[in-house]
Amino acid sequence: MSAPDQSKRRHCDRIHISNGSYCSHCVHGVHFADRLETPDRTTPRRSETTEVYPRMTTTPRAVSVALQKGGVGKTTIAINLAERLANRGNDVLLVDLDQQGNATEGVGLAEAYSSDVHLGDVLEDGNETTLGDVIRSTEAFDVLPAHEDLDSVENSIRSATFGELWIRNEIVDPVLGDAYDYVVVDSPPNLGPLADASLISTQNVIVPLRMSEPSVSGFERMYTQQIGPIRKEIDLDILAIVPNSLAGDNEEKRIIGDLEESQFGEYLPEFARSAHFDDPDSPGPGLRERIAFKRAWREGVPLAEYDPESDMLDRLDELAAVVERGGVADA
């Protein structure tokens, strides 16, 4: 795969701090109309906007759901965040950059994982494949599926100059604000060029955490080895840290308390705070372990479609509101 044609880039006259710096003013891709055939929107796909956390008028925003540790519920959050944002009256694109393709399978698009056209074709210079050729529609939102060739895409990003900008230039920027209000990216569960490209493309991240030392250690590595270095070049905001798949383990209270007292406490949404331990009307803090999450994934639908009475939907709505306003601290 060759790099996208750099002659199509917009440029700016801002001074770059050093060679290799990313400039948010001149890395945009080609114009929207030249790259995307907008998917068919003739059929309404959204339900009425929730009244618990009313939709806010904000600028379009992209967000990655990421942690460099597998098994933390990253894909579950990405799918259901996309659905809740759509349910609130937004046009949403879910981008699956995880080589395992779990989000793609979890929204009922397993066959797309081995399709003839895919994300890599959009990135390849000289290939006439457009985003409109690759994007699929579901009942609630649109999806840019993962593909079995994503490892080759990552190798191309690794070998190209500024390859980490490809996802931003060719995928996110051409559609954000034109075709979609929000772009949600399910990131790879490891350090690497594709994971870096995900964070650089969105400049916002939601971090899912299981209440275990391996999960917390994975976040610490991500913060020092990935978020920190990227922040030296561009803005990258942590929108929320989400304790996930909680089931009443004795470690929950200690780890959430430690998080609240740390520099990361400001990123915990209200539903994730330790006050819920003492609230008799609360099931406890965070996103609780519910069998409906797994069953919904197996059925290829979001939680709201599988179990519209789930007690976790209000919490996912709160997370969607965090994304709309650009962070927990802006509440």
Walk me through this protein's architecture.
The protein is of the alpha/beta class. The protein has a single domain, classed as Rossmann fold, CATH 3.40.50. 36% of the residues lie in helices and 11% in strands. The chain contains 13 helices and eight strands. It has helices spanning 32-35, 74-87, 102-106, 119-123, 131-134, 150-159, 166-175, 193-202, 213-231, 251-261, 291-299, 303-306, 313-325, and strands at residues 61-65, 92-96, 136-137, 142-144, 182-186, 204-209, 237-246, 287-288. The protein has an eight-stranded mixed β-sheet with strand order 3-4-2-5-1-6-7-8, sandwiched between helices. Helix 2 crosses helix 13 (313-325). The longest helix is centred in the C-terminal third of the chain and has 19 residues, at 213-231. The protein is globular, with a radius of gyration of 19 Å. Residues 5-51 have low confidence and may be disordered.
Q: Topology of this protein?
A:
Elements: H1 32-35, E1 61-65, H2 74-87, E2 92-96, H3 102-106, H4 119-123, H5 131-134, E3 136-137, E4 142-144, H6 150-159, H7 166-175, E5 182-186, H8 193-202, E6 204-209, H9 213-231, E7 237-246, H10 251-261, E8 287-288, H11 291-299, H12 303-306, H13 313-325
Parallel strand pairs: 1-5, 1-6, 2-4, 2-5, 6-7, 7-8
Antiparallel strand pairs: 3-4
Helix pairs in contact: 2-13, 7-8
Protein name: Cobyrinic acid ac-diamide synthase
Domain AAA: 62-233
InterPro entries: AAA_dom, DNA_Partitioning_ATPase, P-loop_NTPase
